[in-house]
Specification:
Shape: elongated
Structural class: alpha+beta
Number of helices: 8
Oligomer: single chain
Strand content: 15-25%
Number of strands: 14
Radius of gyration: 23 Å
Length: 264
């Protein structure tokens, strides 16, 4: 699978980071709380509290070793008999779910990429390469997209914020196979105004860190990139014996797309 990472290099700090990415073949994974979308990873927790939500919460407490299986069974019997204080249980369950989401936001990190099909998209070049003064890095990764147990997720764009039932949150921890659906809904859903990004996220259950996900195969230079920066990048890859192809991106003469011209 091939992905793109658009980068700016408008100042010395950004240039240094870009060079480090190329040298190490690694990208920075940041926590969700540091993203530029203010509504990123901000699902709405449903106020509904049915038996499935109650039972999932009880299973979660067993999983956390807060109660025994016997006590959990007793709670479920009490629900069926109509002898459960629903208001208290609901308040405690919602509080626990909020703490879980906050923990995920802090502990999970991700790096955003674009689908290779977005290479010619002038809007992405304008937004994420400082109006074409940066570049796009092509990565060939062995990873797969949107399959079970994958860390790669294609972002879904919705007109409304995702709503999570309490059972979805607790089941993600206690039931095998539920975690991926929870992660996709929580960490890979964005407001529809961002839909032209065609974003693909690589998610890690780790603190912010650098990580290599594959091999850098090509670098595409924006039409406004300074020649000295371009030459520096090419020189570094030759010094490190990296087999990377280089392209100049120029505005098309026939449509609203960018064209790639390979450098010799």
């Amino acid at each position: 699978m091939k992905l793109l990472k658009f980068r700016t290099c408008s100042n010395e700090i950004e240039q240094t980071r870009l060079i480090e990415i190329i040298k190490t073949n690694s990208f920075w994974y940041d926590a969700s709380i540091n993203q530029n979308d203010l509504f990123d990873v901000s699902p709405i927790i449903s106020s509904e509290f049915g038996y499935d939500d109650f039972s999932s919460f009880i299973s979660y407490r067993v999983h956390q070793k807060e109660i025994s299986t016997a006590i959990a069974d007793k709670f479920r019997s009490e629900w069926i008999a109509g002898r459960i204080d629903l208001i208290t249980f609901k308040e405690v369950a919602i509080e626990a779910s909020v703490m879980m989401l906050d923990g995920f936001r802090t502990k999970m990190s991700f790096c955003s990429f674009s689908d290779i099909s977005e290479l010619k998209n002038p809007r992405l070049w304008g937004m994420y390469s400082a109006s074409g003064s940066g570049c796009a890095i092509e990565i060939d990764t062995p990873g797969t997209l949107d399959t079970a147990n994958t860390a790669f997720h294609r972002v879904k764009y919705e007109g409304t914020r995702p709503i999570l039932r309490l059972s979805e949150i607790f089941d993600a921890i206690t039931i095998e196979g539920k975690f991926d659906a929870f992660i996709s809904k929580t960490f890979a859903t964005k407001y529809s105004i961002w839909n032209d990004e065609n974003e693909i996220r690589h998610l890690l259950t780790k603190d912010p860190c650098t990580r290599s996900i594959g091999q850098i195969t090509s670098i595409y230079f924006g039409p406004k990139m300074l020649p000295e920066i371009k030459h520096k990048i090419i020189s570094i890859t030759r010094e490190t014996n990296q087999k990377i192809l280089f392209f100049d991106m120029i505005p098309s003469k026939s449509n609203y797309e960018m064209d790639a011209i390979q450098l010799r």
